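Troubleshooting: if your tokenizer reports a length mismatch, compare against these two reference records.
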Amino acid sequence: MKRLLAILMVCTCACGVGRPRGPMSDGERMYLGKCTSCHSAYAPSERTPQKWVDAIDEMEAKKKVHLAADERALILTYLTGDPAGLKE
């Protein structure tokens, strides 16, 4: 009986494991650390690059977040895929 329980437990745990995730980029780590303390994480594809820039500008203007230039660049690189965030 103990053996059956152990097998069932192993199978249950194995079934609950999702697809392995690749390593997290510095930008993703920064985004999750700075932006998700107030709201859920959004997928980068949920907004256009310009909308991401606008959203970060708004959060900074409303004093919801303070980002150093390098932090902002990392986050925008993660969200937009553009190392410059968005070329203006």
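Reference record two:
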Amino acid sequence: MVLDIDLNEGELDNRKAPKKEPIVTQKKEKKKRPVLRAILITFFLGLLGAVGYFVWKGNSISKAMGLNLNPVELIKEKKPELKKDSHGKHTNVLIIGVDSRTGNDISNTDTIILASYNYETKNLNMVSIPRDFHVEVNANTKWFGRINSVYASAENKTKGTGFDALEKTVEDVTGLEIQYYVLVDFKAFVEIIDKVGGVNINVENSFTDYMYPEGLKYKTVKFLAGPQVMDGKTALIYSRSRHSSMNNEGTDYARAKRQQKVILALKDKISEDETFKDPQKVMGILSSLVNNIKVSEFTITDIRAGINLLQDFTSEDRKSFSFVLDPLSGGGQLVEVKSMPSGAFAIGPKAGLGKYEDIRKYVQAIDKNPSLYSEKATIYVHDIGLGYSETAKKIKEIREAYPYLNIIHSSILFKDKEGNHVYSNVDGYPETIREMAKYLKTENITKPEFITTKNNRDAVIILLGKPVQLSSEESEI
């Protein structure tokens, strides 16, 4: 309500105010003002309503995704950081993939990957746990089952405990503390990759799968070796295929490696600047995430820190490494295929079900030197003059310095050669050769002339000779 007040009126009660003539223009203005004000008020209310709707909508989406909005964080000047473990050295994220999810009902978690970023080495390690890896599902009954059933088993018992149970299990197996988790179903997987324009994948081995599941039927899928761009559907097929008889690609272990490759390719793609500058891609990704992903609670600070870390990967020399807890991991010393009382086969620790000490030590070893352990070289050690007992002693020392490498005490080739040599007949083991040469304090990293055969072709060869005898002139120096 608007009031027109005459400031002279009532000032002097005894003074007769002069008679005023009505002004037509003032009457017209009084009629227009309420209309104009009503229009302006309506406009601003509409604007506030629109803003409020988008804020509400964004907040609803954010809450559905697990975003904890804290306005104070928006004005913080401190450099954003991700949560870290109790040592302040790692940020660990549990990545979970499921076949399907309807509402809140989640099937078995067939993809379990622990991504660990080391702030000191600047390396990202990804460790896959096979779905058939047996762990303690029920502590009260000492019942062991496949790790992919841990989530569903806990949820069926007590609603809302699935993620805690799976997190605790993965922490027990690996010895790493988990700060974040993310669960993605196949629909989100396909949509996210399509939104960023596909991913660049270098297919290492050609393979054909004649039994790829599609609904209630099977179809044939084929991949040729070489670099290629995959859309979401193709990347999903590449990640899920496990029935090929070619190049050992038809195993859960090979599938786990391919899944890691796709995740790393997606990481590389979304870390590109144009992705973050394109509102359509960002909103497309968010809309996919709302109904097809579950994450641990995160904040604006987490988002900013995560984006900064992804951008660092593109601008700095940082590396990613992939590992799978299969029977060949850790030089074949960690995991084995076991026969269960029911007659079924299972994957479990060699030390026994529920005994994870060796696996934890292996995770620590790959954290220190992922380049070395990712090469998975078989190392043959030959005696060329050092002597059997001294050679055995040296091998023991190497194994203690570099645990969980596949080191084999091989044959005696010579009895009179001097010095140590480290080499390979094939390319592919540069870090293993470098580390072994460094440990043995030798610069001999090529095959010596006195070796005329190509024994242990696809491996690293160590030759241990007797100490080099210096000449009188050299000894004087």
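Descriptive notes for reference record two:
- Residues 377-476 form a domain with the Alpha-Beta Plaits fold (CATH 3.30.70.2390).
- Confidence is low (pLDDT under 50) at residues 1-17, 24-30, 47-58.
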